[in-house]
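Researcher: Let's try something more involved. This one mixes different molecule types, so please make sure each is placed in the same coordinate frame as the others.
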Amino acid sequence: MSTIVSLPDQATAKLPRKSYLNEEYGIKSWLLTGDHKRIAMLYLMSITFFFVIGGMLAGLIRLELLTPPSDLMATDTYNKVFSMHGIIMIFLFLVPSVPATIGNFLIPLMVGAKDLAFPKINLLSWYLYVIGGIIILAAMVLGGVDTGWTFTTPLSTHYLNTHVVTAAMGIFFAGFSSIFTGLNFIVTVHRMRCPGMTWFRLPLFVWGHYATSIIMILGTPVLAITLVLVALERTINIGVFDPTKGGDPLLFQHLFWFYSHPAVYIMILPGMAVISEVISTFSRKRVFGYTAVAFSSVAIAVFGFLVWEHHMFIMGVSQYSALVFSLLTMLVAVPSAIKIFNWSMTLYKGSITFETPMLYAFGFIGLFTIGGLTGIFLATLGMDIHLTETYFIVAHFHFVMVGGMLMAYLAGIHFWWPKMTGRMYPEGISKVSAIVTFIGFIVTFFPQFLLGYLGMPRRYAAYPPDFQVLNVFSTAGASILGIGYLLPMLYLPWSLIYGKIAGNNPWQATGLEWQIQSPPLTENFTEIPVMDHEAYDYEWLANKTQHEVQTVG
Amino acid sequence: MSHISPVLWQFLVHWLKQFAIFPPEASTIAPYADALYFALVGMTITGLVLVSSMVLIFSIRYSKDRHPEAVQIEGSTLLEATWTLIPLGIFLVFFVWGALLYFRIFNAPPDSMNVYVVGKQWMWKVEHPGGQHEIDALHIPVGRPIQVTLISQDVFHSFSIPAFRVKREAIPGRYTTVYFQAKTPGKYHLFCTQYCGTQHSGMIGWVYAMTPEDYRAWAAGSTSGASLAQNGERLFASMGCNACHSGDAAARGPSLANIYNSRIRLADGSTMVASEAYLRDSILNPSTHVPAGYAPIMPTYQGQISEDGLIDLVEYIKSLDSNYRVQQMMNKSEISSAQEAPVGNTAPAQGVAKP
Amino acid sequence: MLPGGVDPHAHPAFLRHHFESVAQQREAASFGMWVFLLTEIMFFGGMFAAYLIFRNWYHPAFVAGSNTLDITLGTTNTAVLIFSSFTMAMAVYSAEMRRKGQLILFLLCTIVLGLVFLGIKGVEWHEKYVEHHVPGMGFSIQDFVHPTNPKAIPLAPDMAEKTQIYFSLYFAMTGMHALHMVIGVSLLFFLVALASRGAYTEGHIMPIENFGLYWHFVDIIWIFLFPLLYLISRYR
Amino acid sequence: MSEKIDPEHQEQHIVGPPVYLTILLCLLVLTAITTGVAFIDLGVFNAVIALAIACLKASLVVLFFMHIKYSSRLLKMTVLAGLFTFMLLLTLTMTDYISRAWGMW
Ligand code: HEA
Ligand code: HEA
Ligand code: CUA
Ligand SMILES: [Cu+2]
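Model: All components are placed in one shared frame. Result:
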């Protein structure tokens, strides 16, 4: 592949004799490992599994919506399908996607540590995730839940007789998994940085994950207690959310969204973190406005806690407080804009190449801009009245979550694939799949904006025939999209055996993780590194490479 | 075109006919909402064009072939300030614009005609003050502001009329209101947009916006005989309310005449306006707001009256208010034909002191 | 030199391989514990928010509900828990001083006090069960509408219904608190077992210190629960 | 480590039994006070005093039993961050509950 930067060690690269992958063999050495890289791989596999399930459910949704009446499945089946789709995709796929896989793999490498601060807790958090996942799967197999992913009371507490408590407990476990991941990251970033690694020498990837961890730690427990209260309400009939007993169903909304709005930033900040690395590497340039990008991550995390009520604008909250929250929502949108502009400016006077991760990153920028700006529609009070609970919302959040985060996730997986496995993915076909994904995505979700403005309500198993045209487009797009996601699932495993050997630093990137062998040793660094330059210092890298060429080859 | 099969062809034609990208502007609010929408679309397109042209131009101009050596740039405070402040300014404009529209939609003008809507799994029950009941349908005259007072009997529902660009949640245990004024006669979708269980997607109906004449004819034709206030009066007697609320000075309960929309002094010294919500709550949770000078002896009717019954009672108590009566009469005389007796004339119950 | 005389650059057996020094390990562990306590604050925070709202809405019901709690038991329990916090603090001190016997003694004291707390709590809950004041288990409002206590002000039936909200919160909050206590006491047994093998008196006191933080946190939660649940308008 | 000047790190400080005993005594006295005060009718001040005393007790526990007084700035900030977020939850939720009934009295 001509576009891959050629390297001193690329031509002669061999897989290292010893690495974290072959340090020990056997199932047990994986299931009891404390190594953050192995745990990341465990996560990668389990997350992919749940993504496939969630994706198949999405396929069912789209098939059902091909025609107006609910002909493929009964309405309550449909309700279970979209609820499980939402629950699985959010709690079992998107929340852990980048942080638990790529983040887990990279944070210690990037701060120059041998492992995360608490390896056992890291492993525990994977087990919690798996337990949560199994419980949710059990809920699905035993008959499903049909609450939607939002568990709206009193519907979920008193009017449904599906496995609400089971699903809630599954989410409870998955939530604690996410808390422990966040805890580990925060402590690692504060306490395990190598000598010379000051805060402002940290890669932006670490900043993004630091901000994410803040939300995980402070937001997730509120979701946990809310779900416990829902479960108690269902099982022993306490009445805090039940209007007939004097409780307040809006209180549930407040507590739920106190987590779930910040959670959408759990779902995007790690993606943004990936994009910073990718853009910088492939334009061979320092990220424009490093401090602004770093601080905007933290700003998003902090301001993210102040805006949850924008999900409740027509639910009977006080109009004055709606005003406050609308204003705050406008403020939280600004840091995202700052990031987008800084990334665009990073390209200016760069030396740009277009490897697959970069294509995904471009996809991210475009789609997230649309998704984010349509968020402004929803934050605008008067407009939200018309748009809320319609397909406009569905389009908005798929643009930010699928167009944004999922693209970033794929960018990250491709970008660090050589580091994780020691082998390159096939560049040609992966570019094709990036482009297929992009096209499929637009065809799937763009029509949903129009549908939303036309007024098609979300969570409808059957809809009036007026809306069919756009729905057919959407379904057609989803099949293209499915292929776009299927391809990496085929060629990435293929490349494990047949891929070209990557060498230490196939992208000529500056991060610490690229200066060691790929795949890395179990202990990451043979001796603790000393950071003596800024992040994204390409001159330092050039000098180093030159030095290596002189001494090695 | 011969190679396109006839079925497919029909499908295409059908589609093209059905194709629309925004719903009819059938209410007075709709143009305002659409204006805001197009402004927002404009902002999105501007933003997108700006960002994507930056990305495109730079990646062409500075691709590795053309620009092999990257120039390292730190950043620029001036630029950061620009792209912080300009988007912020734009967003704030939309905040103000949106807020104005929000208050407009949720606060009805005082002379609007009131319609009650009760949501339950999975139907909309509409009750007109004149006593017309409908299910999953709403008949309204064009050209009159209409206030819909919503409540739910079970779970959250959401009352949505896309053609009017309005929507409001029906909440269990609390009244919410939304207001609109239809512009063009026609038949429009009515959706439940809040997920409410199995038949959520079946909780749909139609809104019929009619010319005032048609509406009058419809109202006269479909009245059930008794207005809501009259039903309420009957309930008031049958539930034994008049035992205490007889209006006498010696009665155990306060007189309910003229209390609607008046300022009530409560036993704890605060005051409250007796809105519909207050009246409803006084019947279900009497001890949460005890008017000054009375003992909290009124029993709770929680679980004994349906939401429909509560609406009847509330309408009855409202009809005891002379101002409201006059207004209702005006509504009536404007809308309903002369043969139909205005509610106010029959409303005052025996024994209730006239103001 | 660290307390207990460990050289921070020495590599004792308890130093995990991925840490550079004992100091780093120690700082990471205590910071980690504090971050965990943050999540605990927010976990209980959700219930405190609910409490705040309903207390304002249904104040009379909260007063009536609160006045049925046994204040003697409540105050005793508060004192018991504060004492257990003290013994726990002393346990940490003993570990720092490398006094094994003293450490075990204080840990045992803490266990006993914790169990006493749970026992008293159990008695109180049982009382509520007998009085039909447990939501969802034959909850009855009779005691509030027709109080047996002549000093208590009878509630209107609709307000009396709302005592159920009070008791829901009472059981949710004290229940969650007690759950934390149960977890704490169970952990204490482990700590005692390990301490008697001398695990914490060789300079490796982090587990004891962190457990202390947890225990004090549980104590703090109770310090707030006590006035909020037991002490509403007691003068009635 | 010790020669480095870094606000995040600080030498461990051992707190002795005298301090613990004093705190224990304070806590018990405060418990007695808060229980006693609850039996006097002070109107809204009952709640205020009860909460103030609870906060005071909690601070004593945090500062001395939990050694925050002697800990690094990082740990102090951590405690504050928790309180801050909890207050956010309360105040912003209350913006809704307080103003919901505006215009009704
Ligand atoms: C990854 C997830 C994610 C992200 C990042 C966001 C980001 C945002 N979201 Fe979104 N949102 C969701 C996921 C997400 N959302 C989900 C899942 C729901 C539905 C939940 C449900 O009900 O099921 C939802 C719902 C939702 C609602 C509630 C709608 C309703 O139910 O009525 C609102 C309302 O304000 C909203 C707003 C926003 C805003 C303002 C942002 C902002 O953060 C966006 C900021 C970004 C930008 C603004 C783009 C970049 C800006 C520029 C490039 C500048 C452009 C230039 C000029 C203007 C000149 N979102
Ligand atoms: C991470 C989050 C995430 C992701 C990735 C997706 C991905 C997709 N979603 Fe999802 N969606 C949500 C989160 C997500 N969604 C949430 C939170 C809701 C709200 C739920 C609620 O209302 O409670 C929702 C709701 C939702 C709806 C609205 C349902 C309704 O309101 O009635 C629709 C409808 O089109 C939809 C479609 C899709 C499609 C087509 C994809 C595609 O991108 C998926 C493509 C992926 C695959 C297809 C899998 C990979 C491919 C293969 C394994 C190949 C083999 C499979 C096939 C060929 C089918 N989603
Ligand atoms: Cu009613 Cu959806
Ligand atoms: Cu949000």
